[in-house]
UniProtKB/TrEMBL annotation:
SUPFAM superfamilies: Immunoglobulin
Protein name in UniProt: Ig-like domain-containing protein
Annotated spans, Disordered: 1-22
PANTHER family in UniProt: KEKKON 5, ISOFORM A, SYNAPTIC ADHESION-LIKE MOLECULE SALM
Ig-like domain residues: 1-94
Superkingdom of the source species: Eukaryota
Keywords: Glycoprotein, Signal
Organism from which the protein derives: Oreochromis aureus (Israeli tilapia)
Pfam families registered for this protein in UniProt: Ig_3 (PF13927)
Residue spans crossing the bilayer: none
Length: 113
């Protein structure tokens, strides 16, 4: 039977910094795992995907260098001869903010006596 009602906790990351979306599935026989991206494209193990997205050995989807457009809802699906299961995960990406401690402005005023 198909069950895709599970929703994982949202994952928050930063643009340009690697992030992994968890998906731990188990079954016997071992299920075939894939991820459906927010744009509808499907990522399978061993498939080359622009941007370097890969499925890790534990089932997590690894995004090495995410951009703002990578944010959204992802769906992990597992299928074997006995059924299907799925998990939805929302990726929230924050833009990198300039470091405020990297800039320091000093002012000097002459004081007359």
């Amino acid at each position: 039977p198909w069950r895709d009602r599970q929703v994982g906790p949202p994952v928050t990351g930063t643009v340009g910094e690697p992030v992994s979306l968890p998906c731990r599935m188990s079954g016997s026989p071992e299920p075939y795992l894939s991820w459906i991206l927010p744009n509808g494209k499907v990522v399978r193990r061993g498939t080359a995907v622009p941007g370097g997205l890969t499925i890790e050995t534990n089932g997590s989807l690894y995004l090495p260098n995410p951009s703002l457009r990578d944010g959204g809802h992802y769906r992990c699906t597992a299928v074997n001869h006995y059924g299907r299961d799925g998990l939805s995960v929302q990726l929230i990406l924050n833009s990198q903010e300039p470091r405020t401690d990297a800039i320091r402005l000093e002012t000097h005023e002459d004081v007359g006596l």
